[in-house]
């Protein structure tokens, strides 16, 4: 939702209408009409909202862009993928299950690995970012926005070129 905040701000589009078990708003990005969604289901059931909107508007999965966190990427890392597994991310798993395919683009933001193996994953992904981590993550949102514009235009390679990055090395 942090990335969605930036997208809504950039395109002057609040997501304040309730539809499809989500808060939605409509705007234009790169000349295309776009529905912005914030599913209001539990994260693990976010596919219900995405699939309902896709069915209603007859949107092909390849035209659905999903933003999600990724514990397999360090904080500050970002990846665009055209399709693929859920990588253990249950929200993506729900979307894949509900759409019946993994062939939809996604922008994944690194939130880092759990601090130790026995740490509860749910507690980790729902925890608050340290101020420095939040600053790092927020620097990715304008870059992700540019990548999403390329995705909307249908230029997946350019979106990957813009977005795919490892975090900057930490300064001593």
Q: What key phrases describe this protein's structure?
A:
172 residues; 6 strands; 3-stranded antiparallel sheet; alpha+beta; globular; 3-stranded mixed sheet
Number of helices: 6
* Biggest sheet layout: 3 strands, antiparallel
Terminal residue distance: 31 Å
Strand content: 15-25%
How many strand units? 6
Strand order of the largest sheet: 1-2-3
**Topology order in helix (H) and strand (E) letters:** HEEEHEEHEHHH
Gyration radius, rounded: 16 Å
Secondary-structure-based class equals: alpha+beta
Summarize the model shown.
With 172 residues, this protein is an alpha+beta fold. Helix content is 39%, strand content 19%.
Question: Can you put this structure into words, describing what you see?
Answer:
This protein is α+β, with helices and mostly antiparallel strands and 172 residues long. The protein is built from six helices and six strands. The strands form two sheets. Strands 1-2-3 form a three-stranded antiparallel beta sheet. Strands 4-6-5 form a three-stranded mixed beta sheet. A hairpin with a 2-residue loop joins β2 and β3. α1 crosses α5, α2 packs parallel to α3 and α5 runs antiparallel to α6. The longest helix has 23 residues. The relative contact order is 0.17. The mean pLDDT is 90.
Secondary-structure topology with pairs:
Layout (H helix, E strand, L loop, with lengths): L1 H9 L6 E3 L2 E8 L2 E8 L6 H12 L8 E5 L7 E4 L8 H10 L6 E5 L10 H5 L5 H23 L2 H8 L9
Parallel strand pairs: 4-6
Antiparallel strand pairs: 1-2, 2-3, 5-6
Helix pairs in contact: 1-5, 2-3, 5-6
């Amino acid at each position: 939702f942090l990335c969605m905040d930036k997208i809504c701000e950039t395109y002057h589009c609040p997501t304040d209408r309730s539809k499809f078990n989500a808060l939605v708003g409509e705007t234009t990005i790169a000349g295309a009409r776009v529905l912005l969604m914030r599913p209001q289901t539990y994260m693990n059931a976010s596919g219900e909202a995405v699939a309902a909107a896709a069915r209603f508007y007859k949107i092909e999965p390849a035209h659905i862009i999903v933003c999600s966190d990724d514990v397999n990427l360090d904080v500050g890392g970002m990846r665009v993928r055209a399709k693929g597994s859920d990588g253990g991310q249950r929200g993506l798993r729900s979307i894949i299950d509900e759409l019946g395919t993994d062939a939809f683009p996604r922008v994944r933001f690194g939130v880092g690995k759990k601090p130790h193996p026995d740490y509860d994953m749910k507690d980790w992904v729902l925890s608050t970012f340290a101020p420095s981590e939040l600053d790092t993550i927020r620097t990715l949102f304008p870059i992700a926005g540019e990548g999403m514009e390329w995705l909307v235009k249908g230029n997946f390679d350019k979106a990957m070129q813009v977005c795919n990055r490892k975090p900057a090395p930490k300064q001593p």
